[in-house]
Amino acid sequence: MVDILKVEVLGEQLSRKSESFAGLRPSLERILADIHERLTFRARTYIRDEIANYIPINEDLDYPEKLEHSADVVSETTEILRRILRGTGEKLKGNF
Q1: Integer Cα distance of 9 and 11 in angstroms
Q2: Per-residue pLDDT tens for 61-73?
Q3: Is the pTM of this model over 0.85?
Q4: Please, are residues 35 and 2 in contact by the beta-carbon 8 Å criterion?
Q5: Count of H helices and E strands in the chain?
Q6: CB-based contacts of 10, cutoff 8 Å, min separation 6
Q7: How far does Cα 14 stand from its chain's mean position?
């Protein structure tokens, strides 16, 4: 939204239009500044609440368990995909 307002509307559209839209530029610049301020505020709030004040629980810090669980999920997913592809391949062979 910021890029569209800044580049396309303020940069391209208003510069191509004549003096009739000159009064619109200050309003659009204020809107752009407001959007920037709000995005900055939301980013800082998220960083403060979700990152800076994050307190990990034991499960978050148990990386060996997380890695083992991830490996199990990958193995299960691979097996399911293998079965699906085998089934699809057999159907495709039969259709040709």
Answers
A1: 6
A2: 888 888 888 889 9
A3: no
A4: yes
A5: 5, 0
A6: 25, 28, 29, 32
A7: 30
